[in-house]
Amino acid sequence: MVDFPISEAVPIEHSAALPESGDVVIIGGGIIGVSAAIYLNRLGQRVVLLEKGRIAGEQSSRNWGWIRQQGRDPDELPIMVEASRLWRELSTQCDDTLGLVQGGLTYMAKDEAEYEKFAAWMPHAKANGVDSRMLSRTELANLMPEARRDWAGGIYTASDMRAEPWVAVPTLARLAVSEGVTVIEGCAARGVETAAGQITAVVTEKGTVRSPQIVVAGGAWSSLFLRNAGVNIPQLSVRASVVAVDGAPMAYQGGGADSKIAFRTRADGGYSLAAGEFHEFFIGPDAFRAFGKYLTQIKHDPFGTRYYPAAPKGYPDAWGTPRRWALDAQSPFERMRVLNPKPNAAKCASLARDFSALFPNLGPIKAKAAWAGMIDTMPDLVPIVDHVKDFQGLTVATGMSGHGFGIGPAIGRILADLVTAQPAGYDLNRFRMSRFVDGSKIDLGPAI
Q1: I need a labelling partner for 406 at 20 to 30 A (CA). Which of 97, 101, 151, 170 fits?
Q2: What is the pLDDT of residues 290-336, one digit of tens each?
């Protein structure tokens, strides 16, 4: 079993031969791609899933592991409610090996203004049957008796869950394979072939797969892949660091976050720590192209991002990364199999210190590992889940903005219905691709 985020050091597990054709080709082996593969296969589709590196090698094994309804954008929330149900179903189908735990989630308010912001979200929870409730200062202190911080109160959702990402997603991929999906790791998709505006095939480093339907779920790489096909989306990526620490168990066994730190209990008895309001951005060509789309986000949180003038070599938006390449030549996806950014060591050390100060009764807090991931984000912090207008048969699911792990199974189920021209069950207008070019106002989400 892999204990921490997946890298190229993990041996390839899925090495099926590339088929000549399929009903649907999925590009990207993260939680979105794997979930879509499962549900498309269950609709009778012949599914081929291509992953340039390893299943869950990037953000799908590097996230916090939260499966949260709490604080979701109002348009995401009903989908997330479905996702919570699907996680339970999938866990049962995988003999409860996903590490799924219902431990609850708490947001702690630093002051009365933030407390009122939490309260303003509560009608959305009620409308969707979510068991979120406001906690007074005293109730929050009783929920986390070890905490040494005087919060103004909080919001608590007992039904929210967690799972171990580097365990859950590979396990779901094995489920997909057992049900008939063809999964191929170490096989980069270079681009698409079309005829009269209709998708006809995916060209890979190992050959061509004929298919009338393609789903792009490439996370931080989606924008680069689509740009080479002539499709432009204003997606960027930010780095987020996580540190795993040891410590004695606390009475509260769920996840929590305030303005300084986010944490969750781990399956090994320790804790994963992150900074919920801090991320880092490497400036590249796409940053200049998309700058105007991100002004609303920048004005809303001008100090929540640390900027760097250039990304490391080979990153999706690095200055030297090609934006165009021939389909019979090596692509950027083959040059970097797994996007494995270095964590911010100083931030990880400060997180461990902050956690120790917050919960001094847990004893010595010892860091055991640290990692980082590149989070694919959109100007409004809401993903694209949509068909591409000018390419019949091309569907995109990307820009999950750091909350794709939890909602992944439901997005996968929706993609299966979109691809097979069935009703998705929700109004997906919020997630349309055209919102960035049709003059729509940038409406930031999620709510809290």
Answers
A1: 151
A2: 999 999 999 988 778 899 999 999 999 999 999 999 999 999 999 99
Gap between the Cα atoms of 194 and 209, Å rounded: 12
- For residue 205, what are its two tokens? 């480093």
Choose among 54, 47, 60: nearest CA to 98: 60
- Please report, for the chain, the start and end positions of each structural domain, with discontinuous segments joined by +: 24-436
- Domain 24-436 class, CATH top level: alpha beta
Q: Taking a C-beta distance cutoff of 8 angstroms, is the pair 400, 407 a contact?
A: yes
Contact 16, 207 (CB under 8 A): no
Task: Report the C-alpha gap between 289 and 323 in whole angstroms.
Answer: 13
Q: Determine the pLDDT at residue 2.
A: 46
Q: Quick check: 392 and 197 in contact, CB under 8 A?
A: yes
Q: How far apart are CA 215 and CA 24, in angstroms?
A: 7
H/E stretch holding 91: helix 77-93
**Phi, psi dihedral angles at 282 (to 5 degrees):** -95, 120
Tokens standing for residue 251: 């009475």
